[in-house]
Design a protein that fits this description.
2 domains; two-stranded parallel sheet; 3 helices; elongated; DDE_SF_endonuclease_dom; Tigger transposable elementderived protein 6; CenT-Element_Derived
Length: 103
Amino acid sequence: MTTSIYQLWLQELDSSMRAEDRHVLLLVDNASSHTEEGLTLTNVRVEKLPPNTTSKLQPLDQGIIYCVKRSVLNKKMIRALEVIDDGTDDNPYKSKHAPSGLY
């Protein structure tokens, strides 16, 4: 997400909350795009979560982080087995380049 998209969405949220006469607290992580500079928000208060707390404060992200790590590890293992089966290299982990399609 870019800063401009975030700020546009934030302004629309503030406008919507103002129309409903509601005040809300929005908790965001420390992504560089999450900035409110130059915006005047009347009905949305934005607070940033402390750094490196995603897995503790956003438990739903734990599942995503786990799945990504497992996927990367799985692809590394498949690549290592391919290298061993092909007999092209003694050490399948010697290459410093990520296999194509790793991510």
